[in-house]
Amino acid sequence: MVRARTIALALPLLLAAACGKAGLREWRPEDHDSGVTSSSPISTTPTNDDPHASARAVFGSQCASCHGNEGRGDGPMAAMFRPADLSASALQSARTDAELAASITAGRGRMPAFGQNLRPEAVSALVRLIRSWRR
Ligand code: HEC
Predict the structure, then answer these.
(1) What is the pLDDT of residues 95-107, one digit of tens each?
(2) Is the CB–ligand 1 distance for residue 126 below 6 Å?
(3) CATH code given to domain 35-132
(4) Rounded Cα distance, 120 and 97, in Å
(5) DSSP, res 105
(6) Which of 15, 88, 99, 126 could form a disulfide with 95 if both were Cys (CB 3.0 to 4.6 A apart)?
(7) 22-70, pLDDT tens digit by residue?
(8) Distance 96 CA to ligand 1 centre (A)
């Protein structure tokens, strides 16, 4: 019993140490393209303390390259795509939730459509995350 508990406690630490090495992780098939398209829908299982945790994860992998981690329009590809600052209150008041969701699903300007990759619940969760950034 004692040994089993010790192992249960030590294992996550060992894994964390192994994975934390220089921030390296294994190559995944999604890495092949830039993350703009992904064939499998992303799970939106809600998690404990952060109500936006799953949306944040989706945003980080699918949207932040253009929009930046907090939607300010400062991602690494922003210079090429010129995305709007999603946190700007002018933009936020000018749009309904449905309009924001429609842009995510169908695309807008140079932004590709994400309707094929994201379930409707994931799109709603992204809209709530974007609303939480309003300045
Ligand atoms: C390839 C770059 C790129 C990616 C990736 C991208 N966007 Fe965009 N996004 C844009 C551009 C460009 C616009 C158009 C800017 C504008 O509306 O003037 C835009 C517009 C939007 C809008 C509408 C803003 C408005 O004016 O109403 C929303 C909402 C949005 N993006 C959310 C997302 C979300 C959520 C994701 C990830 C699922 C995402 N974007 C991924 C480039 C991108």
Answers:
(1) 999 999 999 999 9
(2) yes
(3) 1.10.760.10
(4) 13
(5) H
(6) 99
(7) 567 777 766 665 555 555 566 666 556 889 999 999 999 999 999 999 9
(8) 15
